[in-house]
Amino acid sequence: MAITKVAVAGGTGNLGPAVVNALVEANFQVTLLSRSSTHEIDSRVKIQVVDYNSLDSLVTALTGQEAVVDVLPSGSISVEIPLRLIEAAHKAGVQRFIPSEYGCDTSHPLTSKLPVFGDKVTVVNRLKEISAQDSAFTYTPVITGPFFDWGLKMKFTVNLSGPSTPIYDGGDTPFSTTTLAGIGRAIAGVLEHPDETKNRYVYVSQAEVTQNKLLALSGKTVEREDISTADLEKKAYEAVKLSPPDFRTFAVNLIRLAVFNPAYGSAFTKTDNELLGVHKFSEAEIVDLVKQYS
Ligand SMILES: NC(=O)c1ccc[n+]([C@@H]2O[C@H](COP(=O)([O-])OP(=O)(O)OC[C@H]3O[C@@H](n4cnc5c(N)ncnc54)[C@H](OP(=O)(O)O)[C@@H]3O)[C@@H](O)[C@H]2O)c1
């Protein structure tokens, strides 16, 4: 199975441009699916306007494509959208579907039970069902840990510019993390190695870090707000009982629980970095990246 034609759904957001760029650099023929034709994109990329609520629109857009990379948001959009995209990909004869994962290991027994990942689990279950019935349709979820560069920029993993940062369970939980460009490379690597990555999760990690390590490497003195992941979890469920419910706090707290509580498998025991051509950072490269966001 060789793949050259790839459609990217949602390639204009936080992660998407790095994915589109990596695919173009790896010489794939990329079609970007978007709700609008007004995005500024690389001249080597074709843009295809779609209606995610219309199966016909998606089947038309995906006819002739060999792979679909879903980088649409998850949780904040109806799960019917990725499910429709999968149905359309199958109808159009697409060989490989990469679902919108790119974070915590949703195949982990504890992580998979967190409601914030419910839609991701539903999507992979549907992919498993279709591929079991039709061996020509295959899938690969890509697990990356929290975005390394974007996570620092958005102060999601740790706030290195202060004045204070939340530190979870003491700050020594190791977690795997990957940059946006590293995730793009991983996706290109999956499509370059379709047989080795068929119908299985792949794991990539450019660094294993802890909050305390990131703080130490930054050389910054930032005030610590110590918070337990048990408290994060409690506050997540309190947030959805509010009127109106605070879904953002609910989601962010449960994602942080999965990253910063070691029971949720956020430090990967093995990775597919080598197969997929994902570069593992040296200590000096980690320091360089941390300094950019300190
Ligand atoms: N591990 C991490 O740290 C981390 C962080 C953030 C995200 N993620 C994951 O990465 C994936 C992509 O997230 P993202 O933040 O890159 O997505 P995003 O920027 O929120 O959205 C990506 C694109 O999806 C399209 N889109 C947005 N809302 C839509 C809607 N209601 N209906 C249809 N299309 C819509 C838009 O493209 P058009 O306007 O061109 O249609 C948008 O540019 C998700 O699975 C997310 O969970 C992981």
UniProtKB/TrEMBL annotation:
Xref: CDD domains: PCBER_SDR_a (cd05259)
Which segments of the protein form a coiled coil according to its record? none
Molecular-function annotations in GO: oxidoreductase activity
* Domain of life from the UniProt record: Eukaryota
Residue span, NmrA-like domain = 5-226
Which keywords are on file for this protein? NADP, Oxidoreductase
The UniProt record lists the keyword NADP: yes
Q: What is this protein called?
A: Oxidoreductase CipA
Protein's organism = Penicillium frequentans
